[in-house]
Design brief:
The protein is α/β, with parallel strands linked by helices. The chain has three domains: 147 residues, Nitrogenase molybdenum iron protein domain (Rossmann fold, 3-Layer(aba) Sandwich), CATH 3.40.50.1980; 203 residues, Nitrogenase molybdenum iron protein domain (Rossmann fold), CATH 3.40.50; 33 residues, no CATH class. It has 17 helices and 14 strands. Strands 1-11-10-9-12-13 form a six-stranded parallel sheet, sandwiched between helices. A five-stranded parallel sheet has the order 6-5-4-7-8, with helices on both faces. A three-stranded antiparallel sheet has the order 2-3-14, with no helix packed on it.
Length: 428
């Protein structure tokens, strides 16, 4: 089920894995364009019509009443509520460390230069609610926005056929997070509402959160009118291990990502062939018992790999080439390996740091770059919900000293009015 390659023979498999990106099709894009145009023209009516057509239900109202959020929280299992509350607390503590501060410098001539950190005013969070619903992702998107100081956070999530409301767990988690602007709408139409605004849903400055192909296409099409977090590809995990690692633990960790969908990727890179063989056997054993076996039987043979290298240094090079979303380092001295890791979305060090620890509870964000984009992209964080404003307060003395240089620079570029703007001040 999980094929083994020696490094010299692994190039084609690694290239195929790196080629995995968010998939788009002309048919999906065309349908999404029509949906977005309809939302822009007809507002709420288009949202209700599209929701009835695609989700099989016409919600009584788009906005979920606060009393419904309260009722969902009251009905939540107490044990689960305690776990989610603790996870939210961990998220807040971690993201508080990401706060940026405005700063200013005062030169001797009276010039003041600086940078202001200003939160976005309104953001929209997309929370899936069809075949899967992820309150953990809602928390991962909402908490950094709240820490950043975003004034209003809108949540959109598809209504369930039996209730006409988003999933009860989504509603309860929204209430735990203090989110009150919750709307029973999903799909491309929800993205359109957040981008363009309707009678009920105000337009936002940025849209974040995962979704299906229609949601991804819609986010891509509205980008520019609003900001987006990313176009996420299939999930992925790489485990970097030596012969001190536990094969059963590695097998379970690989399966934890491979079960997401048929294009998910799970890779072990190790200089130990006995470890790779043992992991291969454990993966096959576990997969027989897992409910998502049908998914595993596609993702593992197509996008999984056990890559055996000659040395640990070679294994590190493979990891940096893959730039994985999740990287586990299960070696004798993982902290010694960490400085050599240049490209990874999140790094999990040591056997106790299983990937689900970060998915749900530890505190760092689980919204991570996929498809090799960890070469230049980072985890979602507070920085994604603020703007940096440059501040220039030039003094008269500084303008007199440097004005002629500025004007000369402008003239060299053929922008004479730029030069004029400075020169009229120099002439008094």
């Amino acid at each position: 089920m999980l094929p083994l390659f020696r490094l010299a023979d692994a190039s084609d498999r690694l290239d195929a894995i790196l080629a995995r990106t968010a998939t788009f099709s002309p048919e999906v894009d065309a349908r999404v364009t029509a949906i977005l145009d309809d939302v822009r023209q007809r507002g709420d009516a288009a949202l209700l019509d599209a929701t009835e057509r695609f989700d099989g239900v016409r919600p009584a109202a788009l906005r979920v009443p606060s009393s419904t959020l309260d009722a969902a929280l009251a009905a939540m299992d107490d044990g689960l509520r305690a776990v989610i509350e603790e996870a939210i607390g961990n998220l807040r503590r971690f993201h508080e460390h990401q706060r940026e501060r405005s700063w200013f410098v005062d030169d001797a001539d009276g010039t003041i230069l600086g940078q202001r950190i200003v939160p976005m005013e309104r953001v929209g969070l997309y929370v899936p609610g069809g075949t899967a619903f992820y309150p953990s992702s809602m928390a991962m998107n909402a908490v950094p926005a709240q820490v950043a100081g975003v004034a209003e956070i809108a949540v959109v999530s598809p209504p369930q056929r039996d209730t006409g409301l988003p999933h009860a767990l989504v509603l309860a988690t929204a209430r735990l997070l203090g989110l009150t602007h919750v709307y029973a709408v999903g799909g491309a139409q929800a993205v359109g509402a957040l981008a363009f605004g309707t009678e009920t849903i105000p337009a936002v400055d940025k849209i974040t959160g995962p979704g299906n192909a229609y949601v991804a296409s819609a986010k891509r099409q509205v980008f520019g009118r609003v900001a987006i977090d990313s176009i996420a590809g299939p999930s992925e995990i790489v485990v970097l291990a030596d012969d001190t690692a536990h094969p059963t633990h590695i097998a379970a960790d690989l399966l934890s990502q491979a079960e997401h969908d048929e294009r998910a990727s799970a890779i072990l890179v190790t200089p130990s062939e006995p470890l790779a063989r043992a992991v291969q056997a454990e993966v096959a054993r576990f997969a027989e018992t897992l409910p998502r076996r049908a998914i595993l039987e596609k993702s593992l043979p197509d996008y999984g790999a056990l890559v055996v290298t000659e040395t640990l240094a070679e294994a590190v090079d493979v990891v940096n080439r893959l730039a994985p979303e999740h990287l586990e380092v299960l070696t004798a001295a993982p902290w010694d390996v960490l400085p050599k890791i240049r490209h990874a979305g999140a790094v999990f060090l040591g056997d106790a740091s299983a990937e689900p620890v970060g998915d749900y509870f530890a505190g760092p964000n689980h919204v991570l770059p996929t498809g090799g984009t960890a070469r230049y992209a980072s985890a979602l964080g507070v920085h994604d919900f603020v703007r940096r404003q440059s501040v220039i307060a030039y003094s008269d003395a500084a303008l007199q000293k440097h004005g002629a240089k500025i004007a000369r620079f402008a003239e060299a570029e053929g922008l004479d009015a730029h030069a004029l703007s400075v020169n009229v001040r120099l002439r008094g």
